[in-house]
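Self-study notes.
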Amino acid sequence: MTPGTRYPHAPITEAVIDIQVTASVSVDRLAEAVAGESSYPTAEKLLSASGAMVFGPESNAVATATTQAVGYLCRSVDGLHIYQARTNGFTFSRLAEYTSFAEVSGEARRLWEKYRAIATPTDITRIALRYVNRLDIPLPVQDFSTYLRTAPQLSSDLPQGLSGYFMQLQLPMPDLQGACVINQTIIEPPAKPNTVAVVLDIDVFRTSGVATDETRLWEQLEQLRNEKNRVFEACITDDARRLFQ
């Protein structure tokens, strides 16, 4: 199947565009990046927590914990869009049902440009595109390889029943100056009866040579999208594709 094929019932449960930056901006200043958005009426502060354990001369341990505001999280009226404006970056998420990358990236870019004008980052250190897919595979499942080309393989000397698993693959991608992380697991309970729900989570990111020019930056994100599509198609079979038709 050609990467980027549009499926009538795409299995995407969340699409994320993430841009990490170096900036000297206060949380109070970031409030301007989330103000005046009638489509995003709710905004809540994002907190970062840290802790330490200090041991005294008599082995008495003292634990300390602190929290610090790092930005804001905003939700759209319909709950389908979420964006974060943080001191170290920007994140935009689209929840199911997914529409198209053009629509998602268009809204993300609008909000990013507002964030960038407020945060005035000195550098962009990482860009990422993450897609979380849920495959509702009909029961009974004799072999996950019927639907997944990238799946756990059990030794023939082991019992062949599998009630759960978690698998992570980290793939260097030199051409993108980045990498891809694939997480795959079973989630319980399944969203649909008589199925097993398998999450296929694909995170493609670039950590070197990230463009600061707006046009080039979004071209690089488009490159990540193309690579994400290629990885997705490489992980599934035709039987899986028929589930999305």
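Second protein, same conventions, sequence then structure:
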Amino acid sequence: MIITRTPFRMSFVGGGTDMEDFFRENGGAVISSTFDKYCYVTVRHLPPFFEYKTHLTYSKMEYVNAYDEIKHPAIRNAMKMLDMHAIRLTYESDLPAKSGLGTSSSFAVGMLNAFYALKGKYADKKKLADEAIFLERKLCKESGGWQDQIAAAYGGFNRINFREKGYEVRPIIISPERKQILNRNLLMFFTGFVRYSADVQRANSEMGAVKRQCLRETLVLVDDAEQILVNEAADMDEFGRLLDYTWQLKRKTGKAVSTTEIDELYEKGKRAGALGGKLLGAGGGGFLLFYVRPERQDAVKDALRNLLYVPFQFENSGTCVIHYTPEHYEESVAEEIK
């Protein structure tokens, strides 16, 4: 039996510049961090005593005998890609899916990590990120960028640079004390609205002149954000104000980025004392993140009391195998799933 634990991510600055059709031409960069909310994937070989060959449990249950019977596209394509047979897979999560935290990509990374471990093979973080990107963007044909898979695989507080020939992951060098100040000044709330990120990305996919210009400006602001974080003399509150500015830019990049309800919630947070914030993920729903000085946090929580407040801490591990019990498995014992 294998159990993997894979964190979710929050992206601060640069979202949208990780889209392949943008960064291949313009370059891209994102500052993001993983945090201590996770998805868990359990995988084991299914004993040959059942009428079905594979059992899958996520928000639904599937009992199947062939690849093409699998309804979940990521599981179906991942099993084909890695030649997986006769398994029982279970997915659990600390937070809801379709909420802007890269949950589907964290699942993809964690699943691939579990599949390799079940085969007795080691896959490093880059291999897991690359294959999760290939799985979601090419095999499943889902719209979206590359940052989620990379963040989930590597973990930590990073700047991810995108270039024509790929990407690089560069840790943000920030003192533990300064990092903790940032963590304390961030409040996260669940809006209650959920949506498929790929659907939002498709709705916003047209790369018009306004969107391209907003993304180019956002890319420049990644440097400013990094300097605020790493410069011990800089006022950390400027990071909150920059979040507000970049959120206003992002709202211009597509009609599905925000809604009237989300705009009203954001303004409530601002009026109560937040210096800035953003909707996490592609847009349309999920979690609102605010930067709030400690003395104004009770007021912001009260203003948004109808939303679920979710405390969190940054984490550094990325995807990992937290339980590993090797199994003896003979393909001849169980008829292959095709």
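Instructor comment on the second fold: The mean pLDDT is 92.
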